[in-house]
Each structure stands twice: as C-alpha cells, then as structure tokens.
Specification:
25% of the residues lie in helices and 25% in strands. The N and C termini lie far apart (112 Å). The protein has a four-stranded antiparallel beta sheet. A three-stranded antiparallel beta sheet has the order 5-9-8. By secondary structure, the chain is of the alpha+beta class.
C-alpha cells in the first residue's frame, strides 16, 4: 500500500492535478469568504426623527437599519455604536435628518458645545440683547446676518414724542427664543423670537443700555436684501437722539480699583 501511494504521488501528472484541485478549492473558499463578508449585514443606528441642533440625543431617538458591513466600513466618521451616541449633543449649525446615520463630526459633548452668537467677537465689542416678540420682528422676518436699523421712541421734557433712527446698519448675530434656543436652527418646531443679539462697541453698548434704563423704546427695523448685501458702517445715526439719551443719564468716570491684602484687610482704590 505504501509503495503504491508513493508511486501515485511521484507521478507528475498526479501532482499537477492535485495542485490544480487544491488551488481551485482555495480560490473557492477565499471567494466565498470575501463575498459573505461583504454581504454580511450589521445593525447601524439612525435617527428615527429629525434631531435639532444642540439637542441631547437619547435612546428613544435612535432606531436601527441593516447595511452590508463592507459598505459601512467604507464610510468615514460613521458612528456604529449607540453607546457612543446617546448622551451626546448635535453640533451647532446642523441637524440630523430623520433616517440619517450618525457621524462623529456632528456629535459633541456638552462641554464642547459652542454658541455661535458669542464666537469670534472682536476685542472692544460687547453683546447687546434686545427684547423682541413676534410682532416687533415683523412676523419672525428678521434673520441672523441681516443688517437692520434700530429706531428709538421716547418722550421729551415737554411731553412730545421723539422717534427716529438711532443706529444704522447693525448686524443681527442671532435670534433666540425665551429658552435661549436659536429660532432658525431647526424646522422640527416653530419657535417664537424673544431677543435679538448684536455685537457692538463698548461705547454703543453703554448708549443702548442707557436708552433702555431711562425708559426709551428701541425698535428693530428690517431693510431689504441689498441693505444686508452691501452693509454700511454700524454707527449712531442721530446726534440729537444720542445727546438726549446722555442728558438723562449720569456719566461714571473710569477708575481703577486695587485690592491689597494688609493687616487690617483694607481695600484701597
């Protein structure tokens, strides 16, 4: 028996046939492995409803679909684990559509969440918040990045009404509702405007706040698309109105206060 097997294997034709058969088997097994691996379906988390910007993602916002593993592995930044999604926030300036997959670039921890209204404010500028409502924003027709005018209404010492343009060409940084949410960041819900945010110079901030404190009414006035497309310099539009406001408010001189620690715990200024 051993001699017969040895003679069989020593035959070149026999070895060739065995090699061909083994090659075919290897190719067949390898091909089937690759096909099965490419067609293997895995569960991928997707949003079961539209999720607005800055929303905390919870378990009930997630459902699953089956996709081929090979196609999933070819998608950059795709998050396939729900444990890495739940508890995260949708990044500012975007929303996750219903049935959309989750991408790591759209998911942030709460500590990483920015507020675009306060981003990139130049030195020497301050955020001014103007209280508004649906009526004063012309039915929610004032949008972020619009350039508008601010008008002032007051009553002078003789009881006459004063009304005129106070600030020209001021950029709207953000429109927020009473909960601090950006009004136009989502289409999932209708939000009512409560404040307009502007970045103004420190001097203009003081002027606007003084106007509010002495009881003046500041009204936003929208302009056309050309006004926003070709904005002028943000400036005080009327010297009379500025002088009227300043005449009703005291000017506090700048002072530097130095706190020193001494035996008597005194504060020196």
């Amino acid at each position: 028996m051993g001699v017969a097997i040895k003679r069989f294997l020593s035959n070149k034709n026999t070895v060739t046939i065995i090699g061909v058969i083994l090659g075919i088997v290897v190719l067949y097994v390898g091909y089937n492995w690759r096909v099965n691996n490419a067609l293997e379906l895995i569960s991928v988390p997707v949003a079961n409803k539209e999720i607005a910007s800055r929303t905390k993602i919870t378990e009930d916002m997630i459902t699953y679909i089956k996709l081929p593993r090979n196609s999933v592995n070819s998608i950059d930044n795709l998050e396939t684990s729900a444990s890495n999604i739940v508890g995260k926030y949708v990044s500012f300036g975007t929303s996750i559509a219903q049935n959309s997959m989750f991408y790591t670039s759209y998911l942030l921890d709460k500590s990483e969440m920015p507020d675009s209204a306060f981003a990139d404010i130049p030195d020497g500028y301050t955020i001014f918040s103007l209280n508004v409502d649906l009526h004063s924003t012309y039915g929610n027709s004032i949008y972020p990045d619009n350039y508008i005018d601010l008008y002032l209404k007051a009553t002078d010492d003789t009881g006459k009404v004063i009304f005129g343009k106070l600030i020209s060409s001021i950029k709207v940084l953000a429109v927020k509702d009473s909960s601090g949410n950006h009004v136009f960041e989502t289409t999932v819900e209708s939000r009512t405007p409560s404040e307009l945010l502007f970045a103004v110079t420190d001097d203009m901030f003081l002027l606007l706040k003084k106007a509010e404190y002495i009881g003046c009414e500041i009204t936003p006035i929208p302009r056309n698309a050309s006004y926003s497309a070709n904005p002028g310099e943000t400036s005080v539009a009327n010297d009379y109105l500025r002088d009227f406001i300043l005449s009703k408010a005291a000017t506090i001189p700048d002072s530097e206060i130095t706190i020193t620690n001494n035996d008597d715990n005194e504060i020196e200024d």
